[in-house]
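Consortium newsletter contribution from the modelling node. Members have asked for a concrete example of what our holo predictions look like. Here is one, prepared for the UFG complex that several groups have been discussing at recent meetings.
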Amino acid sequence: MNILLTGGTGYIGSHTAITLHQNNHNVILYDNLTNSREETLFKIKTSLGLNLKLVIGDVLDTKTLEDTLNKYKINAVIHFAGLKSVDESITQPKKYFENNVNGTHSLIKAMKAVKVKTLIFSSSATVYGEPKYLPIDENHPKNPENPYGASKLKVENILKSLSMSDPSWKIVCLRYFNPIGSHEDVNIGDNPVGTANNLFPIILKVLKKKIKILEIFGKDYDTNDGTGIRDYIYIMDLVEGHLAALNYLKLNSGWHDVNLGTGKGYSVLEIIEKFQSVNNVIIPFKYSPRRKGDVSESYADVRKAKELLGWEARNSLDVMCKSVLKYFVLEQTSKKNVF
Ligand code: NAD
Ligand code: UFG
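And here is the predicted structure:
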């Protein structure tokens, strides 16, 4: 299949590109590089010999999207492109709606124009908001606590309506929980261009001594140790979920929402302890007030992913924590080699 990955040079897009390519798909990346680097392609080429095609473009630019869909005879799109910082979305909500919602409108317009109707959308567990029950299944009420989540929910509703108005659309909406780690053989990882907000990129900043101490946001949540609980999933497991979704869409149309998580939650303190013990490093930390827009606890009910897509996460938290450190070491080594 010829597959277009919007946001393809980003963290999840670049990892997905490798697996799709290795599964004999023809992959075209489409990215405006606001939160990623062209260098990622170079790293993939050097490590794996894969020559991935990149179109530098904005999803808001419908004409360039349409031309790209035509030129590469695209059969399916995975729509990763989006802004994802919860913090930034609180201070600049308009930017998030403009980019994430209007960007999707533009993509739909381009896809309609060339009659491509197979789409996988990167949504987020953030759409559920504070859990009413756990684990969170796909029918859980959607009450996002922040504008980023609200923008994702709006896109979901647009796509759902689209598939209701035209049942020939084939759409899987994947709600990611917390992807972490990186590819075994390439030094690409979660390395945002802007400020890092997520736990693991911040842990790496502490290791690099760019940040003195990790702040744990909140020690008064109603959880086992008072810190926030999340469902961390290994990036390559998450990627496999996309392959499974593509396979599913070969035979099925309509709208399908699916959680991608492990089904198990870990607190921030448990993560720090695990990261320290499996990697034999020390992460200094202190407690700070809760972060705006955060929920206390979030982990997935993963039954639908297994039943519908035949997919489940396989890797343990040990593997994920080791993978994060391996990326750090590879980065440090490659920098030493350059200078
Ligand atoms: P990322 O920032 O690394 O990748 C997103 C990519 O989209 C970046 O390369 C960025 O340059 C590009 N992009 C943004 N706006 C664009 C636009 N208007 N036109 C073209 N390209 C644009 O983020 P990621 O972690 O790879 O996330 C991918 C998707 O998954 C996002 O939509 C994100 O909201 C969603 N998601 C991520 C997580 C997570 O924890 N990483 C969790 C849930 C959902
Ligand atoms: N945390 C800290 N200190 C930090 C960073 C994070 O204590 O410096 C805590 C948070 O409070 C939270 C946990 O670590 O309890 C995980 O936080 P992340 O920022 O890594 O992840 P979030 O769950 O807040 O959000 C992430 C992505 C969203 C995505 C969501 C899906 O940022 O894009 O997961 O669950 F939608």
